[in-house]
Amino acid sequence: MEIKTSKLAIIAGNGNIPFYLLDECEKKGRDYCLIIIEGHGKELANKYKVDFIVSLSKMGKAIKFVKGLEIKDILMVGGIDRPSLKNIIPDLWTAKFLAKMGSNIGGDNSILSNLTKSLEKEGFNILAPENIIPSLLCPNGVLGKHKPNKDNKKDILDGFKIAKILGLNDIGQSLVIENGLVLAVEAAEGTDNMISRAALLKKEEKGGVLIKIIKPQQDKRIDRPVIGINTLKAIKDAGLDGVAIESKEILIINFNEVISYANNEGLFIEGI
Predict the structure, then answer these.
(1) Nearest alpha carbon to residue 197 among 237, 148, 155
(2) What is the pLDDT of residues 87-115, one digit of tens each?
(3) What are the structural domains of the chain?
(4) Are 200 and 239 within 8 A, CB to CB?
(5) First to last CA, the chain
């Protein structure tokens, strides 16, 4: 569902999705202020006006800034490098947030879900990328002209079951599987690097599937998994046959470009 409302605060990290959403806001005339996480999104400043730069340890400053603009809607997009808690000196708001987390500070999902709850208590509405661009969500079915073969279909079935079990434990959101054998599970290195790691373990030159899901307990507004053209290039370079992603849950950036690349390179993309 697309949400149209007043001025939007966009808190941006790394990656391509902030560019995609900012371009869409400008195209639609959606008024926004841009807040960049310190040490992230440096390229954004070359194209857009940055209104505020905030350290992860000083989130209280960002909240005060947004409230001062009387903005209610917040969109958080892009990857963020997780800081070492030993090396930060938090402001009062961040210190209280960390204290509330206490021993529950664990996986990224736990931190992000608690962050959204804390921001909602401050009176903010947390939007998802698909509230700005509904077509970002992966549709169901085969998306290009190439289809998974019999071996791929078996790997997709097995891979989804395994990925969901791993996701319940907040472990990754992607894996590579070949002929029933899981070659790699996504960790801190990200999807593309995980695919490269899996390529070193392949038994056959061509074959295998990337599986990408959303973790069952993941906050869909601020932490939806994404694939884009770089994902497809990594799949091709690794010799995989294609990718199966969870439909209506995974975001596809630059959809037409992604499908065109897959068609030209003989890769399948399927929403499950």
Answers:
(1) 237
(2) 778 889 988 888 877 655 555 556 777 88
(3) 8-132 (3.40.50.20), 137-271 (3.40.140.80)
(4) no
(5) 20
